[in-house]
Amino acid sequence: MEVYNTSSTDFTLMGLFNKKDISGLLFAIVSIIFFTALMANGIMIFLIHTDSRLHTPMYFLLSHLSFIDMMYISTIVPKMLVDYLLGQRTISFMGCTAQHFLYLTLVGAEFFLLGLMAYDRYVAICNPLRYPVLMSRQVCWMIIVGSWFGGFLDGFLLTPITMTFPFCNSREINHFFCEAPAVLSLACADTALYETVMYVCCVLMLLIPFSVVIASYAQILTTVHHMSSVEGRKKAFATCSSHMTVVTLFYGAAMYTYMLPHSYHSPAQDTVFSVFYTILTPMLNPLIYSLRNKDVTGALKRAMGRFKCTQKVSGDVF
């Protein structure tokens, strides 16, 4: 039996599991994706920090991307799963505010980080001789700090404004988490000015980093095209295409939700597109960046080898 909001300050999240005929299947799929994302990103972080061969700028940035993805998916999915098991849909005003802030901060940091990671690949392939200088440890930390600063700025700027609007009597959020457009649809005041500000923020946080990604990979593909090695060209094209697929999915879905006028999409469509960049992307990132990467697979084999040796030594001792 489902429990709805019992307090005037609570919101009701309609969620992903509101269709009873497929709710169990969706719950199972989302659960698998969530735990796969946590495990894959956790393994990436562990390998990068324990294997000296992965102590390079690219993997340093990848470890932070994995950390953001773990935090990112954990702000949304666990509550969805627990609410389904408990048969409830409510979220308190403070809980909604916290989720909104964490979501904006983490997604903003990832927007900027992905753009700057594309620059890292551009320097590595197009200017390999200058790579140690252009991507020094100091520069890497500047990229990380800059990404987090952009995310925190977005969260601190937009969350207080969003959550101070007066909300109507119907506090049902037609979404599976407290995303800004869905929350704003409940506001009883004129939100036109705020939506303009949010649109400008989205241009800065989506279009600019995505433009950096496109420009960087365009230069990379141009450089790769002139490679003399056919095998090298195929490998580089395969890597670039997989990276671009994930990045386009992430940025494209977010652009659809935040930059397309509301008259061009429905709440149901927003929910579907939000799934792409809030649930699927955190799982796809580590899989795409690792499964096609011999360095990471090699580090995994070495880690498993060390574990087997440890188990063997322990067995011999006892």
Secondary structure blueprint with pairings:
Blueprint (H helix, E strand, L loop, with lengths): L10 E3 L6 H31 L6 H18 L2 H10 L3 E2 L1 H34 L4 H4 L2 H27 L8 E2 L6 H5 L7 H34 L4 H30 L7 H25 L2 H24 L1
Parallel strand pairs: 1-3
Antiparallel strand pairs: 1-2
Helix pairs in contact: 1-2, 1-3, 1-10, 1-11, 2-4, 2-6, 2-10, 4-6, 4-8, 6-8, 8-9, 9-10
Give structural notes:
The N and C termini lie far apart (53 Å). Helix 2 (57-74) packs antiparallel against helix 4. Residues 1-7 have low confidence and may be disordered. This protein has one domain: Rhopdopsin 7-helix transmembrane proteins, CATH 1.20.1070. The protein has 318 residues and is mostly helical. The protein is globular, with a radius of gyration of 22 Å. The longest helix has 34 residues, at 93-126. Helix content is 76%, strand content 2%. The protein contains eleven helices and three strands; from the N terminus they run E-H-H-H-E-H-H-H-E-H-H-H-H-H. A three-stranded mixed sheet has the order 2-1-3. It is found in: Cell membrane. The chain crosses the membrane at residues 22-47, 59-81, 101-119, 139-161, 197-224, 236-259, 271-291. It is a multi-pass membrane protein. Residues 40-289 form the G-protein coupled receptors family 1 profile domain. This is Olfactory receptor.
